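SAMPLE LOG
Freezer: B-3
Tube label: C17
Construct: single chain, 124 aa
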Amino acid sequence: QVQLVESGGGLVQAGGSLRLSCAASGLTFSTYPMGWFRQAPGKEREFVARISTLGVSTYFADSVKGRFTISRDNAKNTVYLQMNSVKPEDTAVYYCAAFMRGWVSYTADRVDYWGQGTQVTVSA
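STRUCTURE (predicted):
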């Protein structure tokens, strides 16, 4: 079965950096656009970043643009989220996502597979 397993979450001070990883198995990873969403307590899950199948195209939510980068290694079936200059408002559970193939979308309803999530907490 398909598994997306996130790692790298934790506690970080504001202004610091963190790198999340998502290891995928059970799917042809290189054929799926991949992305990251996050959900803060009491809020809806929101889009963070997306990367195309070959890593050529990336797209970010305005709230993280210029601070976060997304990359992938198709040989390792892994997608990464590099988080720099983090802010307390970045505190959330971060979810790895495999988007539906054939769509250029950034919404949760176009996600085929989800990871279990990893907690990121940014202290002021």
